[in-house]
């Protein structure tokens, strides 16, 4: 059932956007706009969830991931437009943060909740493994290779390399979507501890077509509001990070945490209902969409954005990525996880957050 606040907040955020667009905002207005921005993000993912429930799994997880990625791309582009040279690495920092949050934070807490509820969290290793392999391939192509290419100085692609990486990333994402939704759909369906596929939720009827269409319209309104309001508060976000003496990469972490918080809640709720596969679909689908859709979108945006696009990770970040891939592979292969697996991934998440603030 749709709550009243999810109906009114997108409209309120859109009104705030109309009233504040292009103006210098005093601090108290920035606080109000920030609250509406966070509320619009929550409302957007709620309405995406309603639409997702209507269409069922695995389409539902796909809709949620794409909706979150649209918000992420909007925030990155608006901050890059106003950030100047400091924002040249913003896309890399945000995408890497999204990968760490999804593959360690969301995945870890989902496994932990599921294991605490049933002692063992059970999921389909075929579907989860293919999703994790795709995330690993796209992340390596987009975030690791730029550090080692030699055609241009610095951790960046040449325009031709960037275009090729964008096409390959988008192609791999679309190929995975085809596998997830058509050829091997059962590999991404929730399963019981006995390995039986759960076709639908047993306790909650899907929303009506009218409710789904209403949520679709409010989702579009919320996304428009998020894009516009983000531009208004972006100078304040950067000023707060600078005044606290934190690295510029923290801005990317803040963006990723903001847009992925509602999806984290959705994944934990699914894990609490013993739908671990749905939680993992959300986590890995978001990671994949974050790279496979964000990098192509930013590549197109670079046509009119000034300055280079720094994509290559540093040594510390690469170590964290390799460790995440190694631990994630060992977690996924058996198709069963206990609280230790969840704790390992949450520990890696904590290490990432600490090193982002104190490199």
TrEMBL record:
<feature type="transmembrane region" description="Helical">
    <location>
        <begin position="239"/>
        <end position="261"/>
    </location>
</feature>
<keyword id="KW-0472">Membrane</keyword>
<feature type="transmembrane region" description="Helical">
    <location>
        <begin position="5"/>
        <end position="22"/>
    </location>
</feature>
<feature type="transmembrane region" description="Helical">
    <location>
        <begin position="216"/>
        <end position="233"/>
    </location>
</feature>
<dbReference type="InterPro" id="IPR004837">
    <property type="entry name" value="NaCa_Exmemb"/>
</dbReference>
<feature type="domain" description="Sodium/calcium exchanger membrane region">
    <location>
        <begin position="29"/>
        <end position="181"/>
    </location>
</feature>
<feature type="transmembrane region" description="Helical">
    <location>
        <begin position="310"/>
        <end position="332"/>
    </location>
</feature>
<dbReference type="GO" id="GO:0015385">
    <property type="term" value="F:sodium:proton antiporter activity"/>
</dbReference>
<protein>
    <submittedName>
        <fullName>Ca2+:H+ antiporter</fullName>
    </submittedName>
</protein>
<feature type="transmembrane region" description="Helical">
    <location>
        <begin position="28"/>
        <end position="47"/>
    </location>
</feature>
<feature type="transmembrane region" description="Helical">
    <location>
        <begin position="95"/>
        <end position="116"/>
    </location>
</feature>
<feature type="transmembrane region" description="Helical">
    <location>
        <begin position="339"/>
        <end position="357"/>
    </location>
</feature>
<dbReference type="InterPro" id="IPR052946">
    <property type="entry name" value="Alkaline_pH_Ca-Antiporter"/>
</dbReference>
<keyword id="KW-1133">Transmembrane helix</keyword>
<feature type="domain" description="Sodium/calcium exchanger membrane region">
    <location>
        <begin position="215"/>
        <end position="355"/>
    </location>
</feature>
<dbReference type="Pfam" id="PF01699">
    <property type="entry name" value="Na_Ca_ex"/>
</dbReference>
<feature type="transmembrane region" description="Helical">
    <location>
        <begin position="128"/>
        <end position="148"/>
    </location>
</feature>
<dbReference type="GO" id="GO:0015386">
    <property type="term" value="F:potassium:proton antiporter activity"/>
</dbReference>
<dbReference type="GO" id="GO:0005886">
    <property type="term" value="C:plasma membrane"/>
</dbReference>
<feature type="transmembrane region" description="Helical">
    <location>
        <begin position="59"/>
        <end position="83"/>
    </location>
</feature>
<feature type="transmembrane region" description="Helical">
    <location>
        <begin position="160"/>
        <end position="179"/>
    </location>
</feature>
<keyword id="KW-0812">Transmembrane</keyword>
<feature type="transmembrane region" description="Helical">
    <location>
        <begin position="282"/>
        <end position="304"/>
    </location>
</feature>
